Automatic annotation (TrEMBL):
Coiled coil: none annotated. This is GtrA family protein. It comes from Henriciella mobilis. It is found in: Membrane. The chain crosses the membrane at residues 12-33, 39-60, 81-100, 106-127.
Length: 145
């Protein structure tokens, strides 16, 4: 393994761990709120996504992409990540609506939440990697002090 490949593979492994941790937070918060009938499936999904996104963003800034982030929070990356999460939330809500509207006899609310999570997780991963944490794309980022 070359010196160039090893950091990239380590970064990917960190990405998977942090994103997986954010996903666990996401699905646990949403699932618990839904299970205990605290919120509707839409609101529980949104709450889970927000909690998971905050955990993942901080993990990516300070561990996964520390070479890009320099160990500092960035207004530019935070704004872009917020945009990605908002888009993810719209997609997740659309998937839940579709499943509960057209397949309510076949799909429980929990199953709809999990399916919507998987779809939005994939979109969030791709958008974060390709649009937010891009090496060399943020030279003028303003640090958050």
């Amino acid at each position: 393994m070359t010196g160039t490949t090893r950091p990239a593979s380590r970064e990917f492994a960190r990405y998977v761990l942090v994103t997986g941790g954010g996903a666990v937070v996401d699905i646990l918060v949403g699932g618990l709120l839904l299970h205990f009938d605290v919120l509707s499936v839409y609101a529980a999904s949104a709450a889970g996504l927000v909690c998971g996104a905050v955990a993942a963003y901080l993990g990516h800034e300070f561990w996964t992409f520390r070479a890009v982030a320099g160990g500092r929070l960035s207004v530019s990356r935070a704004t872009k990540f917020l945009g990605v999460c908002a888009s993810t939330l719209v997609v997740r809500g659309a998937v839940i609506w579709f499943l509960t509207s057209f397949f309510s006899n076949l799909v429980s609310d929990i199953a709809a939440l999990v399916i919507a999570f998987l779809v939005s997780f994939t979109i969030n991963y791709l958008a974060s990697k390709l649009l937010v944490f891009v090496r060399g794309k943020h030279p003028a980022d303003m640090p958050l002090d």
